Amino acid sequence: MSTSSATRTPDKKKKPLPYFMQKSEDAALPSFQNRRTLADHVKDNMLCAGRKRYFQRIVYVGRHPKVTGMTLRDRFLKLIKDLQECTTNEIKLFGLMINFDGYTVHMVESAEETIGEYMHTLAASDLFEDSRVVLVYNNINQRFFRKLVWRASDYLNELPRTELDQRDPNLTQNTIDAFLVKVYKLCKMVREEELDESKSHATEHTPDIAVLEYLLGLKCLFTVPEYATFYGKLPDVTSFRDRVWPIPKDLTPYDVFETGKYDVNLTFGGK
User: One Pfam family name from the record (predicted)?
Assistant: First the structure.
């Protein structure tokens, strides 16, 4: 005996697919009934990357006391090793670290918590004479590296210096853009071609001293300690719900018993 359609239990409403998985073009367009927020796009990006954690990319430059590249490398690696041993976050620090002639260009990627811990540890060290955070890229779709890659060279002084026109009103933005293009090209070359430390391959994509010194002198960019302070740990704020028991569900409006000149009496029980 067939079951009547009237007695069937209606199916639960299925959660709509992300817009990039929907086949119909109409379904992908935003509508009044199905609004999309920035949080939806963040979740979509993480789904595309196969991740459940929020990832971040930071590019910073620095100038160091006069030590050899290998000594500087050992000091950074010790700092990172100590950080990873004491952190409760299982996500490691990845990226490309390039050191030459007392200067640093680092691109690091990891979970937001790991990046925060690393920047705080870096700010507390004495590794830098000066530093600037050039790029902060939130919610990256794809990482360049799945390990920490190190390159140390001594050819920076051999590079021709960039001529910077101080009268150019767009000098700051153009210099930052050109610098980041070089950094991204270096990352791509190291990842895909597995460059060695010889200067013949990467020279054309290495920022020269004039660019690095200009970036280090920009007051509009955070230093590493300033960044660590500004994007520090979230304060432990005690909320109203943490102090009141039982937890209120419906708060009564403070003016519930006040009536104005044009208010309508809906109780029908009085004047």
Answer: TEX47
What is the pTM for the complete model shown? 0.68
Of the listed ranges 15-19, 75-79, 266-270, the least confidently predicted one is: 266-270
Question: What are the φ/ψ torsions at residue 56 (nearest 5 degrees)?
Answer: -135, 150
Dihedral, CA of residue 78, residue 79, residue 83 and residue 85, to nearest 10 = 10
Residue ranges of domains in the chain, CATH in brackets:
49-230 (3.30.70.100)
Q: CB neighbours of 22 closer than 8 A, spacing ≥ 6?
A: 16, 28
The Cα 25–Cα 30 span in angstroms is 10
Half-sphere exposure of 170 (CA within 13 A, CB side): 3
More confident of the two residues 34 and 103:
103
Closest CA to 216 of 104, 95, 109: 104
